[in-house]
């Protein structure tokens, strides 16, 4: 055995002894302060005997945690993920009770509820002690990261990993280009700042680029285009399809699976991740074989659904499971305090944040983040070729607190720490890695349409059709991706009482759907896409009611005369073929608006009436048709301007005078980068040939 291996063995033994000692002291302290937890017999014992009892109990508890816990979690993978998270405390407490029972001294005992508390504190202390001792030990750090990794991955044969780099794409859901830039300037994201800042006389390691989404500025359209190369016929986050008489919703597992199937059929390609790839926390698989928390496969049953197995990578370590559970509880409390403060200070704009929302937020910002990051760590340590992961935390919080709120900024700081961890892992991976960070869309601030005008879009449409309007309007469903992840984890269908059932009951009434500040109106009893002329004959006041409303920017309808027309206030009517970005109803919506509208107009399942809300270019505000004060889904403002942060060792995503437009173009850029990683690397300018290890991040 070499000197290095002896040193590693001795270091590991001393670290185990230190963790054992810390656990023993923790058990002694808890026995002193908790009335239902004792380590002595009824008649009393000496201090030495009590210490021996604590040491034996801590040792047995540590062994059970190391040996039994992974088996328990593997068996409990059949349990819904959120239920597993809630069982963490109970299972850990049960292990402590067993440890006290088999304790050789036979003197320890605790009430069940006290055992839960003692086990949680001991696991947290043991985890913190071990991590602190391993800070300067690279081998220990690597082993700790492996424990976070998916235990089902194939073990290497001991040979060196590939010399060619792999690629990790990390999607920060909903973070706009300007939001990221502001967070860096405020010091909220030091990791990103370090990548963008020159160092040691050299240039920055990464470049920051903005890109422009399609009209449907939401995760479904963007991620489908990025991962599968086509988002054709995805007009919004949710839309009604007349041929199947169903509402498609991007965050419904069955819809996601169908959209993925259509994209593969259109492109003839499995996706970006087909070659030794991994998809983590996404709506779509990208063709990857390694899956965790992927919505398009979550509705499957049987061996072909490996998505939920990703929970094992994190919950198999009891210390990490307890820490995540405690963080979950803390996040629920944090949201409760923040929402109460917003209500007491009468913050405007504001939406309701009660009910299950605090738990949905905690799932997105804690559980989903921890599980996805752990899965990516496992992928990097396994040396996989390409990984794509989505972190939805910011998007969920910004919907309800606002994209520029303090709540959202705190989430950005935590996401930056996740990026820092991945950069550290890259130093221990068996191959170099290029870390690309991007967003799928931004978010535009603004109050809701209903809050400003006292009428929902659905009721405005009903009024224009001459139908009765309820006195109390219904709230629309939130489009947050985290809500779908929660329901999938609980094995509940997404929007199970949703719009398709209402459409089936009232075939003669319009189906009105909302995707952020994009509204869609379909008439289910007409089998084809209705024209302006048909709508005017059926409901003479509807289109003028919509186009002239101050909360609506423009309306798109098919036209028998012009093919398609965009309608605006005061009778403005411009054929789609003559649309311009700076004139007519699209004036102020920015460059590319006309192209985006024309492209969506060509989709087979575009709604009878497409409605984009009012937009204020001065403040960047829109009016959401959903209960959101940070929204995305249509045209207007930061929602259509996400970012792309890429290593400079890779080729530039686009020429200096060319703008990246559409998610499909990003797919081609990422394909090019993957081929660069496998093939000859792009030569760097003179003076930029810094060490590959520095470039790995």
From TrEMBL:
The protein, known as: Alkaline phosphatase family protein
Keyword Phosphoprotein: no
TM segment ranges: 12-34, 46-68, 75-102, 114-135
Keyword Disulfide bond annotated: no
Keywords on record: Membrane, Transmembrane, Transmembrane helix
Lineage: superkingdom: Bacteria
Pfam families on file: Phage_holin_4_2, Phosphodiest
């Amino acid at each position: 055995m070499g000197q290095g291996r002896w040193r590693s063995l001795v270091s590991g033994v001393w670290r185990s002894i230190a963790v054992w000692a810390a656990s023993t002291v923790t058990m002694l302290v808890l026995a002193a302060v908790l009335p239902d937890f004792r380590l002595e017999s009824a008649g009393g014992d000496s201090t030495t005997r009590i210490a021996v009892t604590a040491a034996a109990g801590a040792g047995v508890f540590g062994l059970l945690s190391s040996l039994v816990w992974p088996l328990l979690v593997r068996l409990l993978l059949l349990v819904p993920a959120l239920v597993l998270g809630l069982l963490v405390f109970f299972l850990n407490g049960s292990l402590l009770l067993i440890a006290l029972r088999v304790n050789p001294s036979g003197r320890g005992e605790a009430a069940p509820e006290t055992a839960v508390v003692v086990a949680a504190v001991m696991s947290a202390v043991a985890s913190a002690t071990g991590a602190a001792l391993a800070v300067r030990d690279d081998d220990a750090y690597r082993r700790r990261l492996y424990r976070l990794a998916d235990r089902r991955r194939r073990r290497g044969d001991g040979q060196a990993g590939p010399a060619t780099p792999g690629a990790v794409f990390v999607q920060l859901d909903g973070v706009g280009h300007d939001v990221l830039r502001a967070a860096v300037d405020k010091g909220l994201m030091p990791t990103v700042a370090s990548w963008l800042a020159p160092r040691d006389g050299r240039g920055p390691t990464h470049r920051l680029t903005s890109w422009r989404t399609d009209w449907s500025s939401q995760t479904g359209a963007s991620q489908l285009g990025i991962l599968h190369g086509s988002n054709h016929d995805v007009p919004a986050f949710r839309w009604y399809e007349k041929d199947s008489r169903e509402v498609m919703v991007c965050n419904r597992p069955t819809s996601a699976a169908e959209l993925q199937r259509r994209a593969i059929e259109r492109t003839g390609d499995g996706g970006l991740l087909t070659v030794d790839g991994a998809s983590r926390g996404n709506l779509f698989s990208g063709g990857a074989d390694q899956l965790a928390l992927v919505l398009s496969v979550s509705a499957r049953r049987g061996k072909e659904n490996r998505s939920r197995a990703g929970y094992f990578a994190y919950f198999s370590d009891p210390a990490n499971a307890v820490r995540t559970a405690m963080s979950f509880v803390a996040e629920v409390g944090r949201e409760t305090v923040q929402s109460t403060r917003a209500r007491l200070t009468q913050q405007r704009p504001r939406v309701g944040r009660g009910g299950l929302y605090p738990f949905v937020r905690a799932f997105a910002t804690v559980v989903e983040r921890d599980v996805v990051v752990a899965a990516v760590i496992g992928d990097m340590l396994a040396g996989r070729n390409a990984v794509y992961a989505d972190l939805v935390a910011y998007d969920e919080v910004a919907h309800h607190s606002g994209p520029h709120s303090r709540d959202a900024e705190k989430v950005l700081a935590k996401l930056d720490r996740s990026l820092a961890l991945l950069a550290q892992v890259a130093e221990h991976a068996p191959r170099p890695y290029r870390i690309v960070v991007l967003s799928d869309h931004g978010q535009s601030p603004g109050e809701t349409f209903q809050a400003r005008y006292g009428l929902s879009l659905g009721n405005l449409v009903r009024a224009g059709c001459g139908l009765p309007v309820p006195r109390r309007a219904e709230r629309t469903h939130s489009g947050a991706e985290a809500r779908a992840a929660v329901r999938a984890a609980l094995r509940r269908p997404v929007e199970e009482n949703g719009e398709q059932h209402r459409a089936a009951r009232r075939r003669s009434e319009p189906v009105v759907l909302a995707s952020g500040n994009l509204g869609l109106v379909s008439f289910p009893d007409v089998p084809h896409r209705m024209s302006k002329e048909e709508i005017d004959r059926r409901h003479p006041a509807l289109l003028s009611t919509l186009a002239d409303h101050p909360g609506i920017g423009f309306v798109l309808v098919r036209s028998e005369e012009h093919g398609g027309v965009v309608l605006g206030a005061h009778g403005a009517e411009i054929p789609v073929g003559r649309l311009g970005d700076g004139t007519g109803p699209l004036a102020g919506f920015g460059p590319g608006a006309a192209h985006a509208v024309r492209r969506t107009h060509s989709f087979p399942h575009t709604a009878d009436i497409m409605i984009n809300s009012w937009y204020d270019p001065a403040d960047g505000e829109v009016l959401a048709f959903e209960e959101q004060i940070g929204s995305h889904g249509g045209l207007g403002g930061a929602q259509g301007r996400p970012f792309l942060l890429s290593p400079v060792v890779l080729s530039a995503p686009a020429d200096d005078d060319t703008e990246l437009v559409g998610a499909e173009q990003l797919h081609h850029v990422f394909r090019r980068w993957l081929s660069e990683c496998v093939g000859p690397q792009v030569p760097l300018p003179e003076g930029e040939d810094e060490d590959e290890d520095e470039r790995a991040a």
